[in-house]
């Protein structure tokens, strides 16, 4: 088993100050990968170690959804296209999420009690407060992973696989999900290590650069893929996530802010975040050593800024740069608007600030 002594800390990616002093330094790793033919899915830029081993956690959800979408799950049950966003979601448990989740149960005949995990209350604080004021009791649909699990159970029903034990490593469903992850990451299935995620499903461990590649491929809308290839579902999944960004996570979440700016993004637990900039043919993945997510926004805004300034190094043609520069600038400002770098106390007095420290090294 890997010990903490064998896990080297990453580079400083951001800091927070209080008064005139630095209060925290957030270290970690960043990998940026291009799918442009000239780069052959190689690492374009990095901070820290782009090959550090990470668990995908919930960044895997759109990739896992690709298995069922490729097999015709949406058409088989007549699910609305917005359901694809919930298959890929870590939703907050708001009324709009529950309404669509209940519709998915109705159309697939999956029963709520068949979901593997325990009952919960909404993950989002505002959504939890709303539910509790309405007298809600814990239920499985409130779990942040319920959309994914409904989709996986429906996929099992469609394929004639047993519903019992669908989270087990040996279940035929898990072979399909492993194959989908392998297709997006370019890894051999046997080389992908697995443990158990928070919702009970297997979770995939791989180099950070391969997670970045998976998102570069998720954002790739080129049509030259076999219909049976899980990669063929990428444009549809990315489009659904962008069309229903609040379904993917929720109002005020970093991934949702980026999706509204045309950037495909998804958070994971323990400091893992991934995104794709389709117009640049790149994917990026971030892992924060301390496992928190408070540093994500300032790091992401800094990453977008540095990408905007290095589009030639990313192989973006001159003719495409003005539009892409505008998109990246708007996305960075949207992130800063939702997550201000200046920090204030509950009395309104300024206490300090967040600052990006990452310095990407370009290949």
From TrEMBL:
This is Asparaginase. Residues 1-20 are annotated as: Disordered. It comes from Paenibacillus herberti. InterPro entries: Asparaginase_II. The lineage of its organism: Bacteria, Bacillati, Bacillota, Bacilli, Bacillales. It comes from the Bacteria.
């Amino acid at each position: 088993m890997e010990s903490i002594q064998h896990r080297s800390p990453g580079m400083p990616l951001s800091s927070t100050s209080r008064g005139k002093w630095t209060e925290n330094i957030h270290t970690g790793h960043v990998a940026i990968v291009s799918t442009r033919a000239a780069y052959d899915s190689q690492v374009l830029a990095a901070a820290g170690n782009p090959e550090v081993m990470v668990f995908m956690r919930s960044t895997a959800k759109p990739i896992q959804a690709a298995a069922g979408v490729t097999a015709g799950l949406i058409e088989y049950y007549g699910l609305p296209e917005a359901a694809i966003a919930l298959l890929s979601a870590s939703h907050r448990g708001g009324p709009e999420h529950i309404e669509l989740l209940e519709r998915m149960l109705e159309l697939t005949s999956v029963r709520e009690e068949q979901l593997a995990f325990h009952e919960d209350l909404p993950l989002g604080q505002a959504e939890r407060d709303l539910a509790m004021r309405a007298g809600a009791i814990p239920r499985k649909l409130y779990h942040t992973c319920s959309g994914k699990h409904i989709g996986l159970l429906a996929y099992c029903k469609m394929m004639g696989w047993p519903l019992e034990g669908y989270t087990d490593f040996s279940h035929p469903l898990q072979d399909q999900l492993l194959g989908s992850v392998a297709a997006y990451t370019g890894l051999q299935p046997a080389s992908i290590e697995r443990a158990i995620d928070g919702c009970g499903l297997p979770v995939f461990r791989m180099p950070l650069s391969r997670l970045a590649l998976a998102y570069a491929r998720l954002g790739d809308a080129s049509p030259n893929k076999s219909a049976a290839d899980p990669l063929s579902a990428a444009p549809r999944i990315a489009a659904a996530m962008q069309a229903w960004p609040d379904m993917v996570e929720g109002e005020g979440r970093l991934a949702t802010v980026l999706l509204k700016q045309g950037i495909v993004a998804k958070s994971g637990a323990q400091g893992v975040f991934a995104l794709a900039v389709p117009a640049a043919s790149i994917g990026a993945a971030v892992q924060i050593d301390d496992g928190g997510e408070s540093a994500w926004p300032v790091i992401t805004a800094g990453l977008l800024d540095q990408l905007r300034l290095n589009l030639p190094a990313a192989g973006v043609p001159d003719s495409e740069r003005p539009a892409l520069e505008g998109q990246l600038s708007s996305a960075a400002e949207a992130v800063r608007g939702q997550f201000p770098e200046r920090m204030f106390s509950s009395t309104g007095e300024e206490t300090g600030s967040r600052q990006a420290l990452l310095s990407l090294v370009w290949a």
